[in-house]
Amino acid sequence: MCDVNKYLEIYKEIEKLQPEDTLQLVLEAETEEQQDFFEMLGNYLLSTKQKKVIERNLF
After folding, report:
1. In terms of Cα–Cα distance, which of 17, 9, 8 is closest to 41?
2. Are 29 and 42 in contact (CB under 8 A)?
């Protein structure tokens, strides 16, 4: 069984990433797989921010 608290802490850290942070992670990734992963994280974070903006009618 996995350590849920460990992954919740990782999630909290990921939520703090800024777009420039995810770009840096993509650019400095060692493999294409890592690049894909960090791009996916960046896209996820962007989409969650977009949802919040839409919900608040700030667009």
Report:
1. 17
2. no
Cα distance between residue 20 and residue 34, in whole Å: 16
Number of H helices, E strands in the chain: 3, 0
Paired tokens of 29: 């990734």
Q: Are 22 and 36 in contact (CB under 8 A)?
A: no
pLDDT, tens only, 9-55: 999 999 999 999 999 999 999 999 999 999 999 999 999 999 989 98
Of 11, 10, 9, the residue nearest 48 (C-alpha): 11
The DSSP output letter for 17 is -
